[in-house]
């Protein structure tokens, strides 16, 4: 089977383009046995020596929910073209193609239901995320959490997961508009993709959507380079992805062919803090993460974060948190056990 949708006429008057998804088989249908394959070969005058090739192909064709592809395609088309296109269902069986007809199944309404609850004011949602405004984004998403719970079949849950996958893609784009480096976006997006597939039910998916909003907005607040000049963007990326390297004002100025005094003044003007202060802040954030999630010694963590002097690292860390790195780790472990 295939799904296809004619794309709307472009501003240039072009038409005739299509989006096609397929081939696929009904999820709950068995793979054709040898007798069924023999019938297909006979009905379509296929040389019999291709029996194994055909069997391998039919085994390769993915078996999915018949409405998962429709849900995904509908959401994409609704977002891109405002619903100004139709989805057609094209069935190919035993080599004879059935008529392509417009189909609006009840299960496709699941995607509509989700879109109305979560994509209401979607432009405002994406704009809020690109600005890192979590409160506004969650407010727009509020209807999702207020929806009464219901029993969800495996097929409906698959459709909902497909929707959240699309939402994850759109939020990636929104964060990119916030001038966040793709490496930061990819790391979070990959983590979320795994969690979507591992979700066991709708309550978990709803919590995941809320988490996505918070995490993506936090990404913008922490790593957005919006408003920064090209030079400062390069410097910040050089710092963020090389925290263990020997970073200094003079080394970075030389790397980007800038006068140290000019770079220092420009960085403080654009970011509101000295370059050295930014470097230490990012290194300490990494140290916090490693103290919470790894079993490395404090001296090893200091080295991985670019602090060659462990005593200096301890002083900076205590000035930031009020406790030593070792005490911070004990508190983090105690908090984790209480969760």
Please outline what is shown here.
The chain is 62% helix and 6% strand. With 339 residues, the protein is of the alpha+beta class. The chain starts with a strand and ends with a helix.
Overview of the molecule:
The protein has 339 residues and is of the alpha+beta class. It folds into three domains: 2-102, no CATH class; 108-223, no CATH class; 230-338, Homeodomain-like (Arc Repressor Mutant, subunit A, Orthogonal Bundle). Helices cover 62% and strands 6% of the residues. The protein contains 17 helices and eight strands. The protein has helices spanning 34-43, 51-60, 68-81, 108-118, 122-130, 134-140, 142-146, 154-177, 182-198, 202-223, 230-240, 249-255, 260-271, 275-293, 298-304, 310-321, 325-338, and strands at residues 2-6, 18-21, 25-26, 63-64, 88-90, 92-93, 96-97, 101-102. The strands form three sheets. Strands 2-1-5-8 form a four-stranded antiparallel sheet, covered by helices on one side. Helix 8 runs parallel beside helix 10. The longest helix has 24 residues, at 154-177. It is elongated and about 80 Å long. The two termini are 47 Å apart. Mean pLDDT is 76; it is low at 91-118 and 144-150.
What strand order characterises the main sheet? 2-1-5-8
SS strand fraction? 5-15%
Which class do the helix and strand fractions yield?
A: alpha+beta
What's the count of strands? 8
Quickly count the helices: 17
Poorly predicted ranges (pLDDT <50, ≥5 residues)?
Answer: 91-118, 144-150
The dominant shape is elongated
Distance between the termini: 47 Å
Helix content class: 55-70%
Order of helices and strands: EEEHHEHEEEEHHHHHHHHHHHHHH
Tell me about the largest β-sheet: 4 strands, antiparallel
Gyration radius from CA atoms, angstroms: 27 Å
Mean pLDDT: 76
How many domains? The number is: 3
């Amino acid at each position: 089977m295939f799904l296809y949708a004619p794309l709307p006429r472009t501003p240039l008057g072009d038409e005739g383009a299509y989006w096609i998804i397929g081939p696929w088989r009904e999820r709950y249908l068995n793979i054709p046995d040898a007798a069924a394959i023999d019938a297909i070969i006979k009905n379509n005058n296929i040389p019999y020596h291709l029996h194994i090739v055909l069997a391998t192909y039919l085994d390769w064709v993915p078996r999915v929910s018949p409405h998962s592809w429709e849900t995904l395609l509908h959401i994409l088309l609704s977002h891109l073209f405002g619903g100004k296109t139709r989805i057609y269902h094209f069935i190919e069986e035993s080599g004879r193609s059935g008529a392509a007809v417009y189909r609006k199944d009840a299960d496709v309404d699941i995607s509509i239901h989700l879109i109305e609850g979560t994509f209401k004011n979607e432009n405002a949602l994406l704009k809020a995320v690109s600005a890192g405004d979590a409160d506004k984004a969650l407010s727009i998403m509020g209807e999702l959490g207020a929806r009464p719970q219901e029993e969800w079949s495996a097929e409906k849950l698959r459709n909902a997961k497909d929707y959240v996958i699309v939402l994850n893609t759109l939020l990636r784009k929104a964060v990119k508009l916030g001038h966040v480096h793709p490496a930061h976006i990819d790391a979070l997006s990959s983590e979320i993709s795994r969690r979507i597939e591992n979700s066991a039910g709708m309550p978990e998916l709803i919590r995941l959507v809320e988490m996505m909003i918070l995490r993506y907005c936090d990404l913008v607040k922490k790593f957005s380079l919006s408003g920064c000049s090209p030079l400062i963007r390069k410097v910040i990326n050089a710092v963020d992805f090389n925290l263990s390297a020997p970073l200094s004002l003079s080394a970075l100025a030389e790397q980007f062919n800038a006068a140290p005094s000019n770079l220092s003044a420009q960085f403080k003007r654009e970011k509101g803090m000295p370059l050295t202060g930014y470097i230490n802040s990012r290194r300490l954030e990494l140290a916090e993460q490693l103290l919470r999630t790894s079993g490395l010694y404090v001296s090893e963590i200091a080295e991985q974060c670019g602090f060659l002097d462990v005593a200096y690292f301890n002083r900076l860390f205590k000035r930031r948190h009020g406790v030593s790195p070792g005490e911070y780790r004990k508190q983090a472990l105690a908090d984790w056990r209480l969760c």
